[in-house]
C-alpha cells in the first residue's frame, strides 16, 4: 500500500499517513455510516483492503474497506468479539483474536478472499493474547493464562508490578 494506516477509535476515523511527508493525507470516517464512536479497536492493511476490528456495537465483526474509495467491500461475522488482527502469508490468512467476554478467547483464521473462517484455536477462558508474529512457517502467539497476575511480594519496591511473563504458543499455519 505504501502508506501507514492509523485507527483513531475515539472519533471513528481511519487516517492514511504518507511516510514521505509524515502527514495525514486522507481520512475515512468510519462512524458516519458504520457504527458509533469507539466501536473500532484494530486495523491491518493487506490483501487489497484495510481490515478494521469492531468488538461491540452495531458493526461487531471485521470490516474490509477499499483503501482508495473508503467503501466497505466485505464483512466477517461469527468471530466473537474481535480485538486484534494479524496478517500471515503462505498461506494467506487474516487472523482474528476474539475475546473479552465470559467465553473462551479464540484465534480465528479467515480466508481473505472468501471471508470465511477456515480454522480456529481456543486460547482458554482466562487467556490474554499479547502478541502474534509469523516465522518459519508458524504463527507464534504470546499469551498468559492469568491476566495481570501480581508477583509475590519482595523487598524490592520495583518488583511490585504485574508479572507479564507470557507463554509462547507455536501454531502451524496450515
Q: How is this structure best described in words?
A:
The protein is built from one helix and 14 strands; from the N terminus they run βββαβββββββββββ. It has 174 residues and is mainly beta. It is globular. A hairpin with a 6-residue loop joins strand 9 (93-98) and strand 10 (105-110). It has one helix at 30-34, and strands at residues 4-8, 13-18, 23-29, 42-46, 49-54, 61-65, 72-76, 82-88, 93-98, 105-110, 117-124, 128-135, 138-144, 167-172. The protein is 3% helix and 50% strand. The longest helix has 5 residues, at 30-34.
Describe the SSE topology.
Elements: E1 4-8, E2 13-18, E3 23-29, H1 30-34, E4 42-46, E5 49-54, E6 61-65, E7 72-76, E8 82-88, E9 93-98, E10 105-110, E11 117-124, E12 128-135, E13 138-144, E14 167-172
Antiparallel strand pairs: 1-2, 2-3, 4-5, 5-6, 6-7, 8-9, 9-10, 10-11, 12-13, 13-14
Strand content: over 45%
Helix content: under 10%
The separation of the N and C termini measures 26 Å
- Order of SSEs: EEEHEEEEEEEEEEE
Give a nutshell description of this structure.
The chain is mainly β.
Q: Which descriptors apply to this entry?
A:
174 residues; mainly beta; four-stranded antiparallel sheet; 1 helix; 14 strands; 3% helix; globular
Amino acid at each position: 500500500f505504501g502508506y501507514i494506516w492509523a485507527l483513531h477509535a475515539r472519533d471513528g476515523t481511519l487516517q492514511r499517513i504518507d511516510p514521505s511527508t509524515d502527514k495525514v493525507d486522507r481520512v475515512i470516517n468510519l462512524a458516519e455510516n458504520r457504527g458509533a464512536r469507539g466501536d473500532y479497536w484494530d486495523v491491518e492493511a493487506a490483501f487489497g483492503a484495510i481490515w478494521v476490528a469492531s468488538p461491540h456495537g452495531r458493526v461487531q465483526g471485521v470490516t474490509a474497506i477499499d483503501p482508495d474509495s473508503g467503501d466497505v467491500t466485505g464483512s466477517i461475522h461469527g468471530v466473537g468479539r474481535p480485538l486484534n488482527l494479524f496478517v500471515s502469508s503462505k498461506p494467506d490468512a487474516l487472523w482474528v483474536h476474539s475475546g473479552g467476554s465470559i467465553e473462551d478467547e479464540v484465534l480465528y483464521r479467515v480466508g481473505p478472499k472468501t471471508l470465511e473462517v477456515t480454522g480456529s484455536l481456543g486460547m482458554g477462558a482466562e487467556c490474554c493474547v499479547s502478541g502474534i508474529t509469523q516465522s518459519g512457517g508458524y504463527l507464534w502467539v504470546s499469551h498468559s493464562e492469568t491476566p495481570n497476575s501480581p508477583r509475590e511480594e519482595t523487598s524490592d519496591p520495583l518488583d511490585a508490578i504485574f508479572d507479564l511473563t507470557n507463554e509462547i504458543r507455536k501454531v502451524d499455519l496450515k
